[in-house]
Amino acid sequence: GEWNTTVRVSSTTLLFYASFVRLLSSIRPGLVKKINRLPTPIAGLDNLSVFLRGCEELGLKGSQLFDPGDLQDTSIRPTSCRVDCVLITIYWLGRAANSCTSYNGPTLDLKEFEGLLHTASVLSFLFV
């Protein structure tokens, strides 16, 4: 029923948040001390916080980071705006990974983000 679907989505969301932290660990081993594996919303927020702090340690600026609320926002703001904020962080993290000597994994095709970056500058003007 509906309850099981809600639990499944919640579990998937928590795994998604933990995957952000694992991504940081693959870019710079040792950057993340611990992934919170508890199946609770607080654990998910903890992992998001660890991810965002780790991004800053890799050189990303606050303006390049999404807000945790972008992943939980239920306002009338279009979903595409919220997703774009997350993708912009992934773009900047990809650039940081490319310049990180300890990382030799797959790389993002940063050209795929060009339209998003233009849209982001327009959105930041409209929604700030």
TrEMBL record:
<dbReference type="GO" id="GO:0051893">
    <property type="term" value="P:regulation of focal adhesion assembly"/>
</dbReference>
<dbReference type="InterPro" id="IPR036872">
    <property type="entry name" value="CH_dom_sf"/>
</dbReference>
<dbReference type="GO" id="GO:0032034">
    <property type="term" value="F:myosin II head/neck binding"/>
</dbReference>
<protein>
    <recommendedName>
        <fullName>Calponin-homology (CH) domain-containing protein</fullName>
    </recommendedName>
</protein>
<dbReference type="InterPro" id="IPR001715">
    <property type="entry name" value="CH_dom"/>
</dbReference>
<feature type="domain" description="Calponin-homology (CH)">
    <location>
        <begin position="1"/>
        <end position="98"/>
    </location>
</feature>
<dbReference type="GO" id="GO:0051496">
    <property type="term" value="P:positive regulation of stress fiber assembly"/>
</dbReference>
<dbReference type="GO" id="GO:0001725">
    <property type="term" value="C:stress fiber"/>
</dbReference>
